[in-house]
Amino acid sequence: MQKAKKIFAEFPDLQIVEGTRLLGGYVGTDAHRKKWVQEKVKEWARNVERVATAAEFAPHEAYIACSKSLQHEWKCVARVVPGAGGQMEQLEGMIRDRLIPALMKRRRNGGPLTQQDVWLKDVAALPVRLLGLGIPKPTKTANRDYKTSATASEAITEAILRGEDIDADKYYVKRGQKVRAAHTKAVKEAVEKESERLGSQSGQAASEDQCEEVRQSKEKRQSGWLMATPLKEHRMNLSPDEFRDAMTI
């Protein structure tokens, strides 16, 4: 800070700061970055709370609002801010304790998490094609997403720091495509492994009726309706009962 003030001493009206928002992320000291992420997490948690309230009477619209819009806000920050996932426990708790129960029309009593609560939270994090809700746990995915973005942009970052020219097509576009492909493959393998693990636990965490509903839903692929944009004019908006029938958990 003192060095910066000395360098820009000839500009007395110039404000010197230790951190600032930049391109959807944040640059600055660790303390300022953590404070910024903390405020963002509080904001997202409040928004999830609002969506959860709406989900009690309009679950389809609320689900689409979160899965196709809101969750991408914290995913974006996770990709460009290192260590953001470690600060998202409050957000993840709001998803687990308010949003998922509201979508399912299932209220938690505020007590300790039961085995079924934990199982449902983990299943909800799976993609819709694997009978989940496609709302990953931010504390688990943030660091992986950041590493992917950092690796994809490593060559261009180093070139900028060295002040060198770079062939964007050769070193950035192609490398980015390769890294994203590897990321997609790794994520797919991870979620399929998690799906198998949760499937093996369903007998202990879910009732026999729930297990049977999951099996039937998987055979009929009815959960695909969850991702349909709720356009009333095209009769694609599911009623609360229709939406919850399409859910597999």
Radius of gyration: 22 Å
Cα distance, first to last residue? 53 Å
Oligomer: single chain
Helix content: 55-70%
Please provide the ordered H/E string of secondary-structure elements.
Answer: HEEHHHHHHHHH
Q: Spatial order of the strands in the main sheet?
A: 1-2
Low-confidence stretches: none
**Broad shape:** globular
Strand content: under 5%
Total count of domains:
1
Number of helices: 10
Provide a short characterization of the protein structure.
The chain has 249 residues and is mainly α. 65% of the residues lie in helices and 3% in strands. The chain has a two-stranded antiparallel ribbon with strand order 1-2.
Give an account of the 3D structure.
The chain starts with a helix and ends with a helix. With 249 residues, the protein is mostly helical. It is globular, with a radius of gyration of 22 Å. The chain has one domain. The protein has helices spanning 2-7, 30-55, 59-80, 89-104, 115-124, 138-152, 154-162, 168-205, 208-220, 240-246, and strands at residues 19-22, 25-28.
Attribute tags:
2 strands, globular, two-stranded antiparallel ribbon, mainly alpha, 249 residues
